[in-house]
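Morning!

This is the sequence you dropped in the shared folder:
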Amino acid sequence: MNVVDLRAHDDLDGLSEFELLDLYLRVRRLLAERLSRHEGSESLEMFFSRMAEVVEPAAPAHPVPKARISPREREVLHFLAQQKTNAEIAATLFISENTVKNHVSSILAKYEVGTRHGAVMAAIREGTLTVD
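The structure's back. Tokens below.
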């Protein structure tokens, strides 16, 4: 079943940027499905358009090049999006925690951000990481 329960998110101010983007993408997918089956109305399309203006900032005048991350860094980034700890990532990938720390540092540097959350958001914005 593809249901987005907005009642669980009645306090949108309490959501992180990542949680808000995740909720927005799920709602967008659901609306797109309904509109394609002509189950929506023009008011839904207007709502979606206004919501997109808030959540999806306008594209920069000059396209931002994608950060060149390695396949292993992409794996680590996937686990960062799941809010896994370095120890959990290390155990899953069968590498040391120090290696995970090195990958995380490299990811932060390539995206020019200071936090794991910032790296995840940057990867989502550039299309390297998707929210499902």
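Headline: The chain is about 60% helix and 0% strand.

More detail when I'm at my desk.
O.
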